[in-house]
Protein: Transcriptional regulator NanR
Organism: Shinella zoogloeoides
Amino acid sequence: MNVVSEPIIRRKLSDEVFARLKLMIETGELKAGDDMPSERELMERYGVGRPAIREAMQALAGKGLVEISQGERAKVLRITAESIFRQVDLPAKLMLSGSSDTLEHLKSARIFFERGMVREAAARATPEQIAELRALLDKQKQGLGDADAFIEADMEFHQCIARISGNPIFAAVSGAMLGWLKSYHTEMLIWTGRENFTLAEHEEIIRAIEKGDADIAERAMIKHLERSRALYALKGNT
């Protein structure tokens, strides 16, 4: 008879503390907004030293489950789509920085995503949301000559379109992709006068959304993003 080897792997104390605290959060024993037990309480409960508790807390913070503030108890965080994307923000940027192909894949993903978002906006937008888009376009016009202000208003415009869907996951995806792309936005937009093309294309998109014409809105968005995709490039590739 063959005996199957199933060795018991000893876990670090901090890993065991992490697992138990994570379970308390998962089961709802600790809810969003609750203070975590103090270090002293946890040391007494689990019979471990302060280093194991602190290491476990840092691991929870690294997973986006708790927030650690100097001089205060750690607090359980509310998990949202935005908070999840924040957890992968740095790895995503590092991934993009290593390959121009990966950046091109992100640009293509953005076009695929935003053509759907603008169709949704054309079907759902209220007069108040149309007014918000126009206000953002005015804000972008006021940012002419100021690269940071212009790009910030541009991002807000596209995020506003995603929010019209009423789906917070769509809004979070939009914010994440725009944030990742922002690092690779070149100065070509400002010093070649291409900002005027952007303003005209945004106006065209707003008109299509206001008319409720999803097909025209989608075509306008594709034209806008295909033209502007060259404005995002790795340093040294511009």
About this structure: The mean pLDDT is 88.
